[in-house]
Structures are given as structure tokens and as C-alpha cells.
Design goal:
By secondary structure, the chain is of the alpha/beta class. The protein contains seven helices and nine strands. The radius of gyration is 20 Å and the shape is globular.
Length: about 220
């Protein structure tokens, strides 16, 4: 199955607004690529209310159920956030881009949000499109947040010690412990560094699905 990416970048613009641009999409038109949309700083600040992440990420279906108080609160929050991001602008190119992306049911869909550091800390995973996906986005596609980072000024001197990498396999539903995809991913991780680093310069530790991660293991 192929992977489809929609990348939205929200950058600092002025004292009143952030600027939203679409930087990657399965069918990104030249017209949309040249556009920038204002996102009210105050609107996002108003949404920075109690953290809904505990309910968004809960494995308790009763807690997340649409009819529950928490579920209704999450849905209302997610729709407001989605409206500020997409539908509020009433731009036909932006809406068409999202509609095309949401309709790619034969692909793994990944919504990538590149956020400026000044943006309030919001549970973006609660985004809810009531028009096309009719549900919390996290149940239909992955929502990935990316933050700008400063480039390295100079190579890091490890003093002769190996670089240590910790890989944690996520398995929130507990159904991936026997999946062959986990072994393929592990193999890919072990083989990939060989093209850029000598094996003696890199030490990789794994926490397997079904075995954590616990605080002690981390």
C-alpha cells in the first residue's frame, strides 16, 4: 500500500497572525503552493484550554465514545481546530487539496504539521473533519507534528564512544507482537546505518512491543 503525505506548515508572520502554507500534497496545484493563509494567534490561544490528550489517546472506548461527555468535548474541540486550519478560509484550492487527500482510502495517509515554536501546545491529534472523514483524524490517518530545529553548528565529538540509539516499538492496541512488520522494521533499522556509519560507531538498543516501555526500561 502506498503512502500519501499532506504537509501543512504554520510559521510566524506578525503580531496578529501565523501564516499557513501547504508544502506537500499528492496533487498540490501551483496555485495553492503560492498561497498563504492567515491563522489568528488569538484563535489558537483560545483553544489552548485543558489538555484533551488523556482522552484522545485513551484505550478506553467508553471514554472516547461520541456520546460521553469527554467524547463530545473532544469532537467539538477537534472540529473547531480543523475549521481554523482548513474550512475557515473558504479557499477552493485548499478545500480541494484536502478533499483529494481525505479521499485516498487506498493509501496510508499521513498529515504532517510543521509548527512554529510560538504556536500554543495543542492536542492536534484531536483534529476532526466532520465533512469528509466524519471522525477523529487519528482513527483514519497518522498526524505527525514537526517542529523547527536549529542546524548543527559542528559535528558532535563523542570522544571515541559509540553513538547510542534507543528504538521503541509502539503497540498501543497490543496486537503487533507477532507481526512480521516489526521484524522487517528492526532489520531495516539495523541495516540502514551501515551505509553512513561504521558499526563500531553506533549502538542500537530495542524495546520490543509487548514488553514496555516502562520507566525502568527507558
Amino acid at each position: 500500500m502506498s503512502t500519501a503525505h499532506l504537509e501543512i506548515r504554520i510559521t510566524d508572520f506578525n503580531e496578529t497572525y501565523f501564516a499557513l502554507t501547504v508544502t506537500d500534497a499528492p496533487r498540490l496545484s501551483p496555485e495553492l503552493a503560492r498561497k498563504s493563509f492567515p491563522i489568528s494567534r488569538q484563535a489558537l490561544a483560545d483553544l489552548a484550554r485543558p489538555d484533551f490528550s488523556w482522552a484522545v489517546n485513551s484505550r478506553d472506548d467508553a471514554l472516547r465514545a461520541p456520546g460521553s461527555p469527554a467524547g463530545q468535548s473532544i469532537e467539538a474541540f477537534g472540529e473547531t481546530l480543523f475549521d481554523a486550519l482548513i474550512w475557515h478560509h473558504r479557499d477552493p484550492d485548499l478545500i480541494a487539496c484536502w478533499t483529494d487527500f481525505a479521499g485516498l482510502t487506498d493509501s496510508v495517509r499521513s498529515l504532517r504539521l510543521c509548527l512554529a515554536n510560538q504556536i500554543p501546545d495543542l492536542p492536534w491529534e484531536a483534529l476532526r473533519d466532520p465533512y469528509k472523514l466524519n471522525g477523529a483524524l487519528a482513527r483514519h490517518l497518522s498526524v505527525v507534528r514537526r517542529f523547527p530545529t536549529a542546524p548543527a553548528i559542528a559535528p558532535v565529538d563523542l570522544g571515541g564512544d559509540p553513538l547510542r540509539m534507543l528504538v521503541v516499538f509502539a503497540d498501543p492496541d497490543g496486537d503487533l507482537t507477532t507481526a512480521s512488520a516489526i521484524q522487517k522494521e528492526r532489520t531495516a533499522i539495523l541495516e540502514a546505518p551501515q551505509t553512513t556509519l561504521a558499526r563500531r560507531d553506533l549502538q542500537i538498543d530495542f524495546i520490543e512491543p509487548g514488553k514496555g516501555p516502562t520507566l525502568d526500561q527507558l
